[in-house]
Amino acid sequence: MVKNNSYLKAIPVLAAFFVMGFCDIVGISSDYMQKSFNWSPTMTGFVPSMVFIWFLFLGIPVGNRMSKYGRKNTVLASMAVTVVGMFLPLLVYSSVTCVIAYVLLGIGNAILQISLNPLLNNVISSPRLLTSSLTAGQVIKAVSSLVGPEIVLFATLHFGDDKWYYCFPILGAITLFFALWLTFTPIRREQVEESKVSVSDSFNLLKNRTILILFLGIFFIVGVDVATNYVSSKLMSIRYDWTAEQVKFAPQIYFFSRTVGALLGAFLLTRIAGARYFKVNILACIMMLVLLISVQNPAVSLLCIGGIGFFASSVFSIIYSMAFQECPTKMNQISGLMLTAVAGGGVVTPVIGFAIDNAGITAGVIVILLCVLYLTYCAFAVGERKCGEQTYNK
Question: Mean pLDDT, to the nearest integer, of 145-150?
Fold first, then answer.
């Protein structure tokens, strides 16, 4: 009965992962923002930065203070920030309020990811089930990422392209619903891990070679995810002269494939060692990128975009779980430190925007390939190492 009750409490926690996926609307919405305000590709490349840069500034401070306020309360605070941001452009529409909306979306999303992943540990105690549950959370996030562009398209279809920002209050209402559900779900508060933890204490964890490699792994896998979403529609437009209606199909294929891959991963990771799964999938991801660079055919390009989403879908949760297992007594600190690396999503896209401006779309894809090459090193360097009292490569 107690076990079943824990699973029931896990449902609203997992459901909250749906809000995480809202940040992925930056891919398709940046196209509308570029047209509305006549921005260049380089300037538009900074739109994802407005969302993801906050992981860099908030990751460690929020992770360190989470013990004081509690993980559940921190999750609810993140959702409150998101709701405020999503209704702002509806009140006053301008480039400034849209930027502020993205900023608040990013701040809310950063706090949410820092606190929601460890909150799962409050209701799920088994390490193997925790890895699978984290991947299940990524499935829900992937579904949200798939639905997000549809919400943008719904807003433009019913209200016109110039009212694309009507997608924001829809996302805000959904966030409010999940916040209320979680509010009325009783969840045991975690024990306080550390009483006084400084920023330097958290960064000192990077002296652990394994934590450092995993930290950079998070940086680059988020970079791959955001960059592929960002590049996909632009690649189909530049290479094949697809229309605005046609290019929307590319990110949808990416998110659908990522959803299927994460769903399969949540099932397989209960049966296959995470390190082994990591290695196989990241090598397949390299193959997809090489094909995307070398073969210029619309069908092959869409296949490769989907393949990247499929094979990279479980990498984040595997790396995150490895970091938790490396320092299980410092879970809040590890969560804050690892989520600081999510800023990689905001760093990679301006580099890609600059590369596209100066060397073409293929140069942008090569930047993604370089990120995946580091992840290949991460998979093979960490896979053979000990993880706390456990071993990754069982």
Answer: 79
